[in-house]
Amino acid sequence: MSWINALIQGIFLGGLFVLFAAGLSLLFGVMEVINLAHGDIAVAAGYLAVVLIPLLHIPAIWIFIVVVPVFVVIGYVMQRLLFQPSLKSGSLTTLLVTFGLSVIIENLLLEGFSANSHSLSIGALGSGAFRITHQLSISYLSVAILLVAIATIVIIQLGLSRTNTGRIIRAVADDREAAQLIGADYRHVFGIAAGVAFGTVALAGLALSMYSQITPSAGPTYLIYGFEAVVIGGLGSLWGTLAGGIVLGVAATIGLVASANFGALAPHLVFLAILAIRPNGFFPKKALA
Amino acid sequence: MSQVTRDHLLRIEDLTVNYGQLTALDGVSFSVEESSIFAVIGANGAGKSTLMRTLAGLHKPIKGRILLDGEDITSVPPHLRVARGIALVPEGRRLFPSLSVEENLLTGTYRARKGTWTLATVYEMFPWMPSRRSQRASLLSGGEQQAVAICRALLSNPRLLLIDELSLGLAPIVVRSIYSSFGSLLESGLTVLLVEQDVSQARSIASQIHCLLEGKTTLFGGPRDFTAEEIEAAYFGIAKPNLELGTL
After folding, report:
1. Where do the domains of chain A lie?
2. Complex-level ipTM
3. Residue of chain B nearest A169, judged by CA positions
């Protein structure tokens, strides 16, 4: 029974990893940029919520209405002012810039909030659960996080395949210069993609701080889970990212049942094993969407 | 100045472009009349593609000006030149490989001006296209891709259509069928500036030809103003043609 429980809890934990991975997947698909500050940005979103909730007097569960748009704007501005200039000097420079950003965010959060952990209390929603059987129950929050994660992937996917902006994003991902020739300003398009990526990772940060706790240095741990989900799903494939996140979540909870120390290690071992068998991931794709 | 440019849609003056260490274009000047076909000819490395890319805004000239309808657009970035009415069909077609045929066409409407070209009118010009609309563009043949690339550019409703190396890698019969559709383009008031390696093709379709050699103008005028030998000399630079270039 505990195995089945672990499997089901893992699927829901996977939802959290998917939220971390969605923005990474999008940015890599559009710009071939790996954002090493991705996890820290999520944590920063969590801390913004910690600050804003007492100020705005709104229930913690609704704070995303404020935080996500703020991070969409931050994403766009950072892309235009910080990442874009570094793109010209090659992907290694961009990698270093995002690494620097990661260090800066962690240290600023440490200065502002100390190393103590914080979390967002969402009352009954956080403690309540669906009781499936006597031994198996699934918390409302886990269900909500997985649903939000799936909705995020579906909305990004539909946005890319069905809307004018999505079509232009795919065109820019295919051929930046040819996209300029049809009138697309690729810097603006990259900004939009970064805005969406930052918005989704802000959701991830809020989910994390409701689901467990955040500390200033929590970011890189979740960056790795997100990154692994993207890679085993197949780079640039959003459906693959969804599958990859859930596989990692299941690995984590099943590992935890096997041994208390094994929970953190199991997803990484599964990641390596999948890479050895399918080096290009579940859904290898050359193009976005 | 404004009287001179009145009926000339495009005018370039003393255009000089460096490509790396190389001077790809060296003081080139010409004007293109509205609703005409103007062909730039020349051998490989003559600077034809650099010229087209500079007109589209992808290269910055180090000297000279580009005037569209009398307005200086030399420093306008490429994506805004589309809105001004310049569309380039790039060398190698450069369709978006992961997009379907119709999606490729629709990208052309992103910054389109008002005009007669719509999805329906391009489908009318190439009747095979609607049945392949949902195929990936990368699965089409070279000639079909070239047609899609031209239509993608047309959908932005340009005033000036730039076509770089239309015939490159295509069978002559395909090239002829694409060129045969150009009559209707001119009727719609479009001005076409094309780069062509095939001199006889260029002479048969264009009202003006302009020959480049190593970035410099070696010959220009009407296609019937010169003998084949004179054009050949200008094209390959075998002997300096005895022409007074002067100022345009």
Report:
1. 2-277
2. 0.88
3. B107
Per-position pLDDT tens, chain A of length 289: 688 999 999 999 999 999 999 999 999 989 888 999 999 999 999 999 999 999 999 999 999 999 999 999 999 999 999 999 999 888 899 999 999 999 999 999 999 999 999 999 888 777 888 888 888 889 999 999 999 999 999 999 999 999 999 999 999 999 999 999 999 999 999 999 999 999 999 999 999 999 999 999 999 999 999 999 999 999 878 999 999 999 999 999 999 998 888 888 999 999 999 999 998 888 886 555 4
DSSP state of B157: -
**Domains (range + CATH), chain B:** 2-91+157-236 (3.40.50.300)
Say which residue the tokens 């579906």 belong to.
Answer: A154
Q: Identify the residue among A157, A181, A238, A288 best suited for mutation to test binding to B, counting B beta carbons within 10 A and taking the highest.
A: A181
- Does domain A2-277 correspond to CATH entry 1.20.58? no
CA neighbor of B150 nearest in space, from B87, B85, B103 = B87
Angle of helix A219-233 versus helix A186-211 axis, rounded to 10: 120
Kind plus residue range of the DSSP H or E element containing A16 = helix A2-31
Nearest by CB to A182, which of B57, B98, B107?
Answer: B107
